[in-house]
């Protein structure tokens, strides 16, 4: 049974009211991003489909603020291809606003020496006009105040210039969101960055100079955790000596820590070379020889959540492979997963035989590893109209995962959902959008408004919270129907 939902955002004439700064929408039954009718149309709205439905020259997309419990935007000085959410000591699961979130991100600057790793604390993340507060909508959440803007927007200087809408009660005003940060000097761009699950201050960094480095930013995280107010002076970049490093024969993107064995890491490059890093007694890491199997660039890596020696990889050779660290000569299992490059994979932590893969053609496939060698996928979705750039399973809902694509959209899927025409008809009077038949019933939510989305992550301790990075900055949001 699909969860009850209200209509998504709406397409409106640009001259009537400015669109919100970040687009996105809760789907109607069947999934969507926005409604396909003008506000004054009397007929039932329909779902607007990214990449398919046109937007007129005099129109721009808006969104329904009730689609989100919160929505925040922030930027660093330079775009980031990759980031990671960090586990913290604030408890889990937690739902009460305001939230505090710790992250790390690596930049792609115009010049090599301008790059850095940003260690971030995003504090006082409220709801703005999204969701409900003490049983009342925040000001700006209704259709009568479409021009107000409520997203938190934090600048690269570490301060926050956000202006959160006040509630109807003057004493109920939220403080502005704050971005605390520390910067670690990098002399090359960051292709991918991952934090060790067991020690969030230890980072693996894939640089575009062919080098993978392991850094410890625990001291910077401790400073941020203790920092209550934004400092008066801009923090300076620091230089950290790596705990370990390895230079591949070509640059790459595939990188992943084992969630089972602390310190075990795998990295893969664009010359099909795949290595496993083992923590050594007394410190440091030992890097293995090449794991042989892929015939072209290794694009992504995902580890098993139950077996410490097992991981998966995918690549330009169109395959997904399952490896055991004790066998370098060949993969244990391999399947021709897509008819194109396989860009990304994700391993379900709650149903450990489920794997997801995303292709260069925009397709998403779900695999049951118990029947993996037979080459049959459980589900196939062709929603994205551009290459799938990221895929990750929810840490709280075993049937839920999220994907992002080069079509500038981020989709949340619930594989347990089925279409119920009677429910859709019953919910129509409440303003729910009418889904097109071709939209998958499992499509639960679509977030848009970012250009060139590269990566997404769920927050492991705040159920439903999702972060995404794109060419124009970061979004941090929680859909209200999760």
TrEMBL record:
WD repeats lie at residues 291-333, 335-370, 381-415. Residues 58-123 form the Histone-binding protein RBBP4-like N-terminal domain. The keyword Nucleus applies. InterPro entries: Glutamate-rich_WD_repeat, Histone-bd_RBBP4-like_N, WD40/YVTN_repeat-like_dom_sf, WD40_PAC1, WD40_repeat_CS, WD40_repeat_dom_sf, WD40_rpt. GO terms for biological process: ribosome biogenesis. Signal peptide: none annotated. It is found in: Nucleus. The keyword Repeat applies. Residues 160-173 have a biased composition (Acidic residues). Keywords: Nucleus, Repeat, WD repeat. Residues 1-60, 126-177 are annotated as: Disordered. Residues 1-15, 129-139 have a biased composition (Basic residues). One of its GO terms (cellular component) is nucleolus. Pfam families: CAF1C_H4-bd (PF12265), WD40 (PF00400). It comes from the Eukaryota. Residues 16-25, 150-159 have a biased composition (Low complexity). Belongs to the WD repeat RBAP46/RBAP48/MSI1 family. This is Glutamate-rich WD repeat-containing protein 1. It comes from Monoraphidium neglectum.
């Amino acid at each position: 049974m699909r969860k009850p939902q209200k209509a998504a955002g709406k397409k409106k004439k640009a001259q009537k009211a400015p669109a919100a700064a970040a687009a996105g929408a809760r789907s109607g039954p069947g999934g969507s991003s926005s409604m396909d009718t003008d506000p004054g149309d009397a007929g039932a709205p329909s779902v607007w489909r990214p990449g398919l439905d046109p937007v007129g020259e005099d129109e721009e997309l808006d969104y329904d603020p009730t689609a989100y419990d919160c929505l925040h935007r922030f930027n660093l000085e330079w775009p980031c291809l990759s980031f990671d959410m960090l586990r913290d000591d604030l408890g889990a699961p937690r739902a009460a606003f305001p939230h505090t979130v710790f992250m790390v991100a690596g930049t792609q600057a115009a010049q090599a020496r301008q790059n850095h790793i940003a260690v971030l604390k995003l504090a006082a993340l409220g709801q703005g006009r999204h969701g409900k507060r003490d049983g009342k909508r925040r000001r700006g959440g209704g259709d009568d105040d479409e021009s107000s803007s409520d997203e938190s927007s934090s600048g690269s200087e570490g301060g926050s210039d956000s202006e959160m809408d006040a509630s109807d009660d003057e004493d109920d005003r939220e403080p502005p969101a704050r971005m605390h940060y520390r910067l670690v000097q990098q002399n090359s761009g960051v292709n991918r960055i991952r934090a060790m699950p067991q020690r969030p201050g230890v980072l693996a960094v894939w640089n575009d100079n062919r080098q993978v480095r392991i850094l410890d930013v625990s001291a910077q995280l401790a400073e941020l955790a203790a920092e209550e107010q934004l400092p008066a002076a801009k923090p300076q970049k620091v230089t950290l000596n790596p705990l370990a490093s390895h230079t591949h024969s070509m640059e790459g993107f595939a990188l992943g820590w084992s969630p089972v064995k602390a310190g075990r890491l795998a990295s893969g490059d664009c010359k099909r070379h795949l290595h496993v890093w083992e923590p050594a007694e007394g410190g440091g890491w030992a890097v293995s020889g090449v794991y042989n199997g892929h015939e072209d660039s290794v694009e992504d890596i995902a580890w098993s959540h139950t077996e410490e020696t097992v991981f998966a990889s995918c690549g330009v050779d169109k395959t997904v492979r399952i490896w055991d660290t004790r066998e370098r000569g060949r993969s244990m299992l391999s399947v021709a997963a897509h008819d194109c490059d396989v860009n990304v994979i994700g391993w379900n932590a709650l149903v450990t035989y489920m794997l997801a893969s995303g292709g260069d053609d925009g397709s998403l496939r779900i695999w049951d590893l118990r029947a993996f060698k037979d080459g049959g996928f459980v589900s196939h979705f062709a929603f994205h109209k551009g290459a799938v750039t990221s895929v990750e399973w929810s840490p709280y809902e075993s049937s839920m995962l999220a994907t992002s694509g080069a079509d500038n959209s981020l989709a949340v899927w619930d594989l347990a959902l089925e279409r119920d025409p009677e429910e859709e008809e019953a919910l129509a009077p409440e303003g729910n959008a009418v889904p097109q038949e071709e939209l998958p019933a499992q499509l639960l939510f679509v977030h848009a408004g970012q250009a060139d989305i590269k990566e997404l992550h769920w927050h492991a301790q705040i159920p439903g919270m999702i972060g995404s990075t794109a060419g124009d900055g970061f979004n941090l949001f929680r859909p209200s129907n999760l």
